[in-house]
């Protein structure tokens, strides 16, 4: 059964490829990206004001370092961005010598370790990988990934999740909770069947996995055992990634995209690329800060 929960439009500035939403509970600010257009969105939820920052490069995710700085994951590396003026300084290169690839789905583990996905700009098979930024160094976790998505972590930090959307499989991997690094091999948690594809995910305080189903106008909620519990309607076909927002983290921000839509498809999906707020009655978790050293 598809649930129709109260839904509003946070931003009607359509994203070519909306991705990487996150929320800073200390300032009541949501952030997300338009990867293809090199834009960073900043929304003050209390007032509803939205600002758009031009980055000058494709970027897909950020982690909060502290009250003054963010770590931006871009197509050629990791950049420290100052909130005061938006100035960006290269912290570490990542696949900077490979013009084929860009960054995609990413998320910060409770330990402060940052999992980072890359992929081909044209979704070239197995062109990407999933990396971990841990103690100031980048290590390869899973190579040969076509479209990395659904990176998220259980509340106790002991399980990591990810998918290669091209394979339609959501994996679970045991982690060291203190480091956010694997201590075992990935195992299949669920195989996606039917319409749509596994895209971005986030775990709630109860360990449930909230997944944006690309191409199916919905967010699916799975148990830690891989059982689908809920499906929430999203008013755009290509929902891409969710994040918990609001002072009590009970609302769900969902990005979307108009990528690969021709004029007829966009006319049939008029809110494609918009960013939404769903009154999801969730028990979300605040995103941890990323640690640089």
UniProtKB/TrEMBL annotation:
All copies of domain SMP-30/Gluconolactonase/LRE-like region, residue ranges: 17-257
Coiled coil location: none
Molecular-function GO terms, alphabetical: calcium ion binding; gluconolactonase activity
Active site feature: 199 (proton donor/acceptor)
Residues given in the record as substrate binding sites: 102, 104
Keyword flag Zinc: yes
Residues given in the record as a divalent metal cation binding sites: 19, 149, 199
Annotated InterPro entries: 6-blade_b-propeller_TolB-like, SGL, SMP-30
Cofactor(s) for this UniProt protein: Zn(2+)
Protein name stated in the entry: Sugar lactone lactonase YvrE
Family to which this protein belongs: Belongs to the SMP-30/CGR1 family.
GO BP annotations listed: L-ascorbic acid biosynthetic process
Cofactor binding, per record: Binds 1 divalent metal cation per subunit.
Keyword Mitochondrion: no
Record keywords, A-Z: Metal-binding, Zinc
């Amino acid at each position: 059964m598809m649930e129709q929960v109260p839904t509003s439009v946070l931003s009607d500035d359509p994203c070519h490829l909306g991705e990487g939403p996150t929320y800073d509970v200390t300032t009541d600010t949501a952030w997300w990206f338009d990867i293809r257009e090199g834009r960073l969105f900043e929304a003050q939820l209390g007032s509803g004001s939205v600002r758009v920052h031009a980055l000058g490069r494709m970027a897909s995710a950020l982690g909060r370092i502290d009250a003054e700085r963010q770590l931006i994951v871009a197509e050629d590396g990791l950049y420290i961005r100052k909130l005061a003026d938006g100035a960006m300084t290269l912290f570490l290169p990542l696949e900077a010598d490979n013009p084929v690839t860009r960054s995609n789905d990413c998320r910060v583990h409770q330990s402060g370790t940052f999992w980072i996905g890359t992929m081909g700009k044209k979704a070239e098979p197995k062109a990407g990988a999933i990396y971990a930024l841990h103690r100031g160094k980048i290590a390869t976790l899973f190579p040969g990934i076509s479209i990395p998505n659904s990176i998220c972590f259980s509340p106790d930090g002991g399980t990591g999740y990810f998918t290669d959307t091209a394979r339609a499989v959501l994996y679970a991997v045991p982690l060291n909770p203190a480091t956010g690094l694997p201590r075992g091999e990935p195992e299949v948690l669920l195989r996606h069947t039917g319409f749509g594809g596994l895209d971005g995910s986030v775990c709630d305080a109860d360990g449930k996995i909230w997944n944006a189903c690309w191409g199916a106008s919905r967010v699916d909620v799975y148990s830690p055992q891989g059982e689908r519990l809920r499906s929430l309607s999203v008013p755009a076909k290509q929902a891409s990634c969710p994040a918990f927002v609001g002072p009590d983290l009970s609302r769900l921000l969902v990005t979307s995209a108009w990528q690969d839509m021709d004029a007829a498809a966009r006319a049939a999906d008029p809110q494609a690329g918009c960013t939404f707020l769903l009154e999801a009655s969730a028990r979300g978790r605040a995103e941890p800060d990323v640690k640089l050293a």
